[in-house]
Amino acid sequence: MTKQTDYLNDLPDWSKDLAIKLGLEDGFALTKEHLEILIVARNFYADYGFSPSMRPLCKMVTASLGMDKGSSLYLNKLFPGSPAKIAAKLAGLPKPKNCL
Fold first, then answer.
1. What is the pTM of this model?
2. How far apart are CA 44 and CA 74, in angstroms?
3. What stretches in the chain show pLDDT beneath 70?
4. Measured distance CA(40)–CA(48) in Å, rounded
5. Which residue numbers are catalytic?
6. Which of 13, 57, 61, 75 could be disulfide-bonded to 52 (CB atoms 3.0-4.6 Å)?
7. Are 90 and 30 in contact (CB under 8 A)?
8. pLDDT tens by residue, 65-93
């Protein structure tokens, strides 16, 4: 696995097991709910060629998993602080461009 500032450079290196390992390193015990958000983020990347920032992530999660899970409050509970940035990292995606 090649890393640059903790983000994977080789997207095919990603797996759910790797996400769980990365999550533990960052203090997250990933659940089924976390993993489904990571899959949505990876699908977004596959469709658009870039990692979703918060607003597009919320829209894609809403479309894929329903309004309850597409809210910024729900995503913040799962990934406190910067949900789009944390989800991208754990999903093996590049850092979203407009996330600090």
1. 0.86
2. 18
3. 1-12, 99-100
4. 12
5. 99
6. 57
7. yes
8. 999 999 999 999 999 999 999 999 999 99
